[in-house]
Design goal:
The structure holds two protein chains of two kinds. By secondary structure, chain A is mostly helical. Chain A is built from seven helices and no strands. Chain A has a domain of 159 residues. By secondary structure, chain B is mainly α. Chain B contains one helix and no strands.
Chain lengths: 237, 53
């Protein structure tokens, strides 16, 4: 017996996300040109950046939900915030690991304490602490309030990470906006690269919405279980 | 000559696509577990109600 039927729009979104990802992947492999100095590994960039931006979108959504939670006090917003943080963390982790794989042949190292890499790691750790904070609190209302305050404060790390390559001296390439000529692994995007890049970005945005909807439904289900369990325990006492 | 970095490219895509696939599976597994737990709780509620009446 299923608790609630999956909405048709969500099933459609799942298929759309799969189709968009497959299309973007095909464009990356068959349409986007090879970058001469980096070789094939440069193609990872399309999904690496898209995953990173979608991850940041997750943190942004979590912040909006946190503000709404503090304003209304509704636990629905707490569920919405947790969904954003969890998906943001997953996508950001994939961005960091794939970036490390790209860096090995291009920078000749898996990791360097470059401002972008460091701020991205700090951001990931800040949101890991958000999950730890939640797991340490039993009272749902108190947990929602504290997590919301933490999410709002923790969001400072997101723009700091995004703008770190523009503000600090860094070897990380700048893909959106003006590029620093000292960046090691820099490449200018030609029209076919831009088409592939924006397709990947669109695919990860659709994937984010689909994942977010699923995670939000799961959160509501978990909340319902907790409520029913608490009610049963009260009856038993 | 263009360097051969294809192994790194494969590794990069495996991480991203594999990671997303694992996360999707994780959400699905948790959803199924929650559905089972919810049904068990509903059964318990049904069992408890006649005693209360």
């Amino acid at each position: 017996m299923k608790p609630e039927k999956t909405p048709r729009a969500l099933i459609f979104l799942d298929f759309l996300a799969l189709l968009a990802l497959a299309t973007a992947f095909a464009l990356v492999i068959f349409y986007a040109p090879f970058e001469l100095t980096m070789g094939s590994v440069q193609k990872v960039f399309y999904f690496h950046v898209a995953a990173g931006l979608a991850g940041m979108l997750g943190f942004f959504v979590a912040t909006i939900a946190a503000v709404a939670c503090l304003k209304t006090g509704s636990l629905k917003w707490d569920v919405a915030g947790l969904a954003g943080v969890e998906i943001g963390m997953v996508l950001m982790a994939l961005c960091i690991v794939s970036g490390s794989i790209w860096a090995r042949p291009v920078w000749n190292t898996w990791w360097t304490w470059d401002p972008r890499l460091t701020t991205a790691l700090i951001m990931e750790l800040i949101y890991a602490a958000y999950l730890l904070l939640r797991s340490g609190l039993d009272d749902a209302r108190r947990r929602a309030k504290l997590a919301a305050v933490y999410a709002v404060v923790g969001f400072i790390s997101v723009p700091l990470t995004f703008f770190s390559i523009r503000v600090f001296r860094t070897i990380h390439p700048v893909m959106i906006g003006s590029a620093d000529s000292s960046a090691n692994g820099l490449f200018a995007m030609n029209p076919s690269m831009q088409t592939t890049f924006f397709s990947s970005l669109a695919a990860f945005s659709i994937l984010f919405i689909a994942l977010y909807w699923h995670r939000y439904r799961l959160g509501n289900l978990q909340a319902e279980i907790n409520e029913r369990r608490a009610a049963l325990q009260e009856e038993g006492e | 000559m263009m360097p051969d970095t294809s192994a790194y490219m494969v590794a990069g895509f495996l991480v991203i696509i594999g990671g997303v696939a694992i996360y999707v599976l994780w959400i699905f597994t948790r959803f199924i577990n929650c559905a089972i737990r919810l049904n068990a709780l509903k059964e318990l509620e049904k069992e408890k109600k006649p005693h209360g009446e």
